[in-house]
Design brief:
- The complex is a heterodimer of chains A (485) and B (587).
- Chain A is α+β, with helices and mostly antiparallel strands and 485 residues long.
- Helices cover 28% and strands 24% of the residues of chain A.
- The radius of gyration of chain A is 21 Å and the shape is globular.
- The relative contact order of chain B is 0.12.
- In chain B, helix 2 crosses helix 6.
- Chain B has 14 helices and 31 strands.
- Classes of the chains: A alpha+beta (485), B alpha+beta (587).
């Protein structure tokens, strides 16, 4: 009964944040997560909107615990190397009556060299925006941060929405402790954590033991960068090791280890207990290792903005591919979030676009959906056109882009946006040079394409646009599964 | 509130999955009946009406709650439907909002859209936020591939319906026998996918619903009953002919009747604020009634599809008395969403059903050994099915689900449940209500004597109601005249979600206050945007005089057998039969 109460607090926090925020990223796309942690910094309940925040929140709480927060105080951070993911994801952590409340939301802009803070060609973290190491959120810190961004008013509104979610968690937890007793609530937290761990261990134990490897690449500006992993199932534990992956790189495809862990946890969730309510216990039986300084365990001050969205997608693919030799897994999905950002001094607009899901051993892949580490909503064309100098010209399925097979991969989509005033465009996308592979004899999906006024573009780009220019994105199809009869 | 007396009789007939209930109220007397639901719903409606001898009295109103539209949607038995959108947006119903159905079950599919891809068409022509961008080209309209119904949804029709009007008129001209619905006729609201989904459902359900309601009207005339009025999702009723125009408005007809009934019961017992708690066999509906009237929402999901029409704000969870009990791999006790249904039913029915919440209640001594229909409950079968699972733990787990639902509609919406009475009905509601009230700090539980057929009573009492919405999405300060009665959907400019506040008086101040209550802050500097104005034309329903009852008193632990339900009064609680209802309070 208490478990349900704790979960509903986390969910209610999420609802308040989404409904009262201003960034399209949060309010329309729901690119945010909220969670409750216990006194020991263990994640107890999370309102899950997108998986990329799964493994990355505990590091944020660990970082804030070192600050020695008092009841009612709130800390802020976005530094990927001390508990963050990428800079636009701004995390608040507050001390509650029992443990911590956490909210993480993707803000539309946090400064840096390009509007929307998603530069295609950043080389250091600094170029991607304001860096907030874990610190107490005072009025002064808040003002300094919002003034360093392109839309201070909107940032202030979003932070207020986050803060109101924290106040709510505070009130609810206090009431719960008052009614049921602090010890009982603490015991319920322990049990929620232990329960998830038991479930996942039982589920892993039912998989065959074994060890296998896989390799795939991300598409950097000047060539492909390999990611290699070894997975091992041993009893009721899983080990995932990225030894052999390329060193971190002078671009922004790098991942801090927290993001890499999120991607690994996502795969384990899919393979073990997809319906289990999220709690940190689910990941206790999973060990993730990567050499310091490699692409998936990057060290400061490497740039990371595409790591969170793009490299994380590829980590999912490569971990699934390694497991494929041991257990049945789906074919690769579109493997990218197709990040698209427009902006000038007056506005910033950011979206990610769905594509084909890879087919499963027993079912076709859904079409036109977010795969793997994202699950954000599409912003309605009517909302875009009412608010931004943009027009949506086309949004439709891309028939035939899913890979053939006994079960077909899902189709990608075609999305065309026309800009109505001078602005910058940034695109971060993957699976442009290499198709999402099929599995078990199934064919690969069609690779994606990005076009500006009909001219094909590289996977990553930043450029100026004039009024009337049309950006067309054709997202990749998912791989097929099994041999087509 | 005093209840006016009425000289004429009113009849409510509510069709459920297993039974069709009838309630006849006449001069302060009430007759109820339950008949099995037949495949042709109009036959069970008439049979239920005859069972309360409705054909022998002078009826002022014959009200009806129907599941015809809901079943056709859930079972995908609607018309062969086509969809027409803007060229380039043909696939909108299939793209939805691009989220996948399940975060970790990667190939889980959303419910199949009501219109297959091959009947989704585009027409050239485009409106933008400020008017026409490209003229409508009717020549670009393709053949409709033998469709029986067509849904039309064009971008920005919520603001400027001119293209939709011309297009719908052309479709009606070209295909005279085909049912055509344009989005602005039904749901002229912002956000194209939700509007398109609502319009598609409306078109898809129209032929089936129109056919059913026509048959019902004819059968009623033959039986010398008045033309039925039909309960809408909004909690209001409309004459059958008018209700048939937009079946998307009928999708929660039955639960809406229950909520109206709960309001009636609360008011007649003198309670101002109530929470309706309807726990049936497979699911439970809860709804908040501040001031005795249901809260309304402008959108809800039915069968996984967003439906944007006014609905009473009923929150549904998939657990009820018939929910099956099991232990999962981690050792946790789970209840539902699978249900034993009516057949085989709970294990104690003696038909080899699995362990259910009802079995746990029986073992705890909260059910009689024999149900009113004559069914003897088999305690040994119940114990064997539960196989050592503690029945008190089963009730605790299902109560946790119920509590969560009750919190969603109260605490999470800024209301303190302690200010409300809990109106418990449905087969299992009165069994669990006191324990839930205890947890929420609620003082009084109200259980109507006719707890098993309350929805049918609510139908009979519903107001006649015509809702209207006008979308603006403009700064509030630019608006000159607004109606004084109704509601406005407002937000700070830049937000995506609206708060609904009553019209009249200082709207700005009212919005800031509502925002502060709901989200903990207000920003008085920020511009307010008016998204929509909602008004309703309401004709009050008949005043219903609820019959009284013998004064009785019962101290817990005690069982009180009611019509179609059992009331469990736990130790420390006391029940008093006061008029039509039992009022149960802590001693």
């Amino acid at each position: 009964m208490l478990g349900a109460a704790l979960r509903s607090i986390a969910e209610e926090m999420g609802a308040v944040l989404i409904r009262s925020s201003f960034s399209a990223n949060i309010k329309e796309r729901r690119d945010c997560s909220t969670a409750l942690f216990d006194e020991h910094g263990r994640m107890i309940a999370q309102a899950e909107h997108i998986p990329v925040h799964l493994g990355a929140m505990p590091d944020a709480v660990a970082a804030v615990m070192r600050l020695g927060l008092e009841a009612g105080q709130v800390a802020i951070l976005n530094d990927p190397y001390t508990g963050g993911t990428h800079l636009p994801d701004v995390t608040l952590v507050s001390r509650t009556a029992l443990g911590f409340a956490v909210s993480r939301a993707h803000h539309a802009d946090v400064g840096g060299i390009e509007p929307a803070s998603l530069p295609a060609f950043s080389h250091t973290l600094e170029e991607e925006g304001v860096i907030l190491p874990p610190q107490l959120l005072t009025d002064e810190v808040l003002e300094r941060f919002v003034e360093a961004t392109r839309q201070p008013e909107e940032r202030r509104g979003d932070l207020r929405a986050q803060l109101s979610a924290h106040r709510l968690a505070d009130r609810r937890l206090e009431a719960l402790c008052e009614r049921r007793g602090r010890d009982l609530v603490a015991a319920a937290m322990d049990e929620l954590y232990a329960y998830s761990e038991r479930m996942v261990r039982a589920s892993i134990a039912a998989l065959p033991d074994g060890r296998s490897e896989a390799e795939d690449v991300v598409e950097a500006v000047d060539g492909d960068v390999p990611i290699r992993c070894t997975v091992e199932i041993a009893g009721d534990e899983i080990r995932i090791d990225f030894t052999g992956t390329a060193p971190q790189y002078d671009g922004n495809l790098n991942c801090p280890l927290a993001v890499t862990k999120s991607a690994c946890y996502f795969v384990v969730r899919c393979l073990t207990e997809p319906d289990l309510p999220a709690s940190g216990g689910a990941f206790a039986p999973v060990a993730v290792a990567a050499p310091a300084g490699c692409l998936v365990n990057a060290q400061a001050p490497a740039a990371v903005v595409a790591g969170n969205t793009e490299t994380s997608s590829r980590i999912v693919d490569v971990v699934f591919a390694a497991f494929a030799q041991l257990v049945p897994v789906p074919a690769a999905g579109q493997g990218t979030m197709n990040n698209l950002a427009f902006g000038n001094d007056r506005f910033t607009y950011y979206e990610t676009i769905g594509g084909g899901q890879g087919a499963c051993p027993d079912a076709g892949g859904p079409s036109g959906v977010h795969v793997a580490m994202s699950n954000t909503l599409a912003t309605p064309a009517e909302a875009i056109e009412l608010e931004y100098p943009l027009r949506v010209e086309r949004w439709e399925l891309r028939p035939g882009s899913g890979g053939a097979g006994k079960h077909r991969g899902g189709d990608g989509v075609v999305r065309e946006l026309r800009v109505l005033e001078d602005c910058r465009l940034s695109v971060l996308a993957e699976r442009r040079r290499h198709a999402p592979p099929g599995r078990g004899g199934g064919e690969g999906g069609a690779p994606g394409r990005t076009l500006v006024n009909g001219e094909e573009q590289p996977p990553k780009l930043t450029r100026q646009l004039q009024p009337g220019d049309i950006v067309r994105v054709e997202t990749p199809g998912g791989g097929g599964h099994g041999v087509e009869k | 509130m005093p209840v006016q007396s009425t000289d004429v009789a009113i009849l409510g007939v509510d069709v459920g999955g297993t039974f069709t209930d009838a309630v006849l109220v006449e001069e302060g007397r009430i007759r109820t009946a339950k008949v099995p639901t037949a495949r042709r719903q109009e036959e069970s409606v008439l049979a239920a009406a005859r069972a309360v001898a409705a054909d022998t009295v002078d009826l002022e109103r014959f009200a009806h709650g129907t599941t015809v539209a809901t079943n056709a949607l859930l079972e995908r038995r609607g018309a062969r439907t086509a969809y027409v959108g803007n060229a380039g947006f043909e696939h909108l119903l299939h793209l939805r909002r691009q989220t996948r159905a399940h975060l970790y079950r990667l190939c889980a599919e959303h419910p199949e859209p009501l219109v297959p891809l091959e009947r989704c068409f585009g027409v050239r022509g485009r409106l933008g936020p400020e008017g026409e961008l490209e003229p409508l080209e009717l020549d670009s309209l393709p053949d409709l591939d033998g469709a029986e119904a067509v849904a039309v949804c064009l971008l920005f029709a919520f603001r400027d319906p001119s293209h939709e009007r011309v297009l719908a008129a052309e479709l009606r001209r070209r295909h005279p026998g085909v049912h055509v619905v344009a989005s602005h006729e039904l749901a002229p609201e912002f956000r194209e996918y939700e509007r398109a989904s609502t319009t598609a459902a409306d078109a898809y359900l129209a032929p089936v619903t129109v056919g059913y309601l026509r048959a019902l009207v004819a059968a009623a005339a033959e039986a010398r009953l008045p033309e039925p009025v039909v309960m809408l999702s909004s909690g209001g009723v409309l004459p059958a002919g008018e209700a048939a125009e937009h079946p998307a408005r009928l999708l929660i007809s039955g639960p809406a009747g229950g909520v109206v009934g709960a309001g009636l019961v609360a008011r007649s017992a003198g309670f101002e604020h109530a929470i309706a708690f309807d726990m049936g066999g497979t699911s439970t509906d809860v709804c908040l009634l501040p001031d005795g009237r249901a809260e309304r929402v402008s959108e809800r999901e039915v069968g996984g599809l967003p439906i944007r029409v006014p609905s009473v704000d009923v929150h549904t969870v998939g657990a009820g008395g018939g929910s099956l009990v099991r232990r999962d791999a981690g050792g946790a006790l789970r209840v539902g969403p699978e249900s034993a249904g009516a057949d085989p039913g709970p294990a104690c029915y003696g038909r080899r059903g699995g362990p259910t919440v009802t079995d746990a209640n029986l073992l705890l001594g909260r059910l009689p050994r024999e149900l009113p229909g004559g069914l003897v409950l088999d305690g040994e079968a119940a114990a064997a099915a539960l196989a050592g699972i503690d029945p008190a733990a089963v009730v605790e787990v299902v109560n946790a689900e119920m509590l969560r639902a009750l919190r969603v509609v109260s605490v999470e919406r800024g209301h303190d449940p302690r200010d409300f009475a809990l109106v418990a009905y449905g087969g299992a509601g009165p069994l669990h209500a006191c324990a839930l009230a205890e947890e929420l700090g609620i003082e009084a539980v109200l259980v109507p004597a006719a707890a098993g057929v309350l929805s049918a009573l609510g139908l009979a009492a519903g107001d006649e109601r015509r809702d209207r919405v006008v979308s603006h999405v403009r700064p509030l300060r630019e608006m000159r005249e607004l109606p004084s009665d109704g509601e406005a959907d407002l937000r700070y400019r830049g937000q995506s979600f609206e708060l609904t506040v009553p019209l009249g008086g200082d709207l700005e101040a009212r919005f800031h206050r509502a925002h502060e209550e709901r989200y903990g802050y207000a920003d008085r500097e920020r511009e307010i945007e008016l998204v929509a104005v909602r008004t309703a034309e309401v004709v009050r329903g008949p005043a219903v005089e609820l019959p009284g009852g013998e004064g009785r008193r019962s101290s817990g632990p005690a069982l009180v057998e009611l019509e179609g339900s059992t009331l469990w009064i736990p130790p420390g609680w006391e029940g008093v039969r006061d008029g039509f209802s039992w009022v149960v309070t802590r001693e």
